[in-house]
Specification:
The protein is mainly alpha-helical. It has one domain. It is about 75% helix and about 0% strand. It has helices at about 10-35, 40-60, 75-80, 85-100. The radius of gyration is 16 Å and the shape is elongated. This is ER membrane protein complex subunit 6. It is found in: Endoplasmic reticulum membrane. It comes from Cyberlindnera jadinii (strain ATCC 18201 / CBS 1600 / BCRC 20928 / JCM 3617 / NBRC 0987 / NRRL Y-1542).
Length: about 100
């Protein structure tokens, strides 16, 4: 059985799509955490659960449970690469929404 050929343009497109989904959902979940007035560890737990949930749902919906067909290193691409980017957007929207609800 031959390994499927992966094209760099397709992998780039899939990565950009995943980044867009992570960017959008990090803002949504950050605002949700701020509105819910989550603080400290509860907020960070919400962050990691939401990141894992979004990545898992992306795997189910976009990759049809076969992420190795769409990414070079699926676990790294889905669960590690965008974590810092997700964290910063989440924190920014979390603190903004938290401050707006407090005032």
């Amino acid at each position: 059985m031959d390994k499927p050929v992966k094209y760099a343009q397709s992998i780039q497109h899939n990565t950009k799509t995943l980044q867009y989904v992570h960017d959008f959902t990090s803002l949504i979940f950050g605002i949700s955490a701020g509105i819910l007035q989550l603080e400290s560890l509860n907020g960070f737990l919400f962050l990691f659960i939401s990141f894992a949930l979004v990545s898992s749902l992306f795997t189910i919906s976009h990759c049809q449970l076969q992420p190795s067909r769409y990414f070079e290193s699926p676990l790294k691409s889905l669960y590690v690469d965008d974590l810092a980017r997700y964290l910063t957007a989440f924190l920014m929207s979390w603190t903004l929404a938290y401050a707006l609800v407090q005032s």
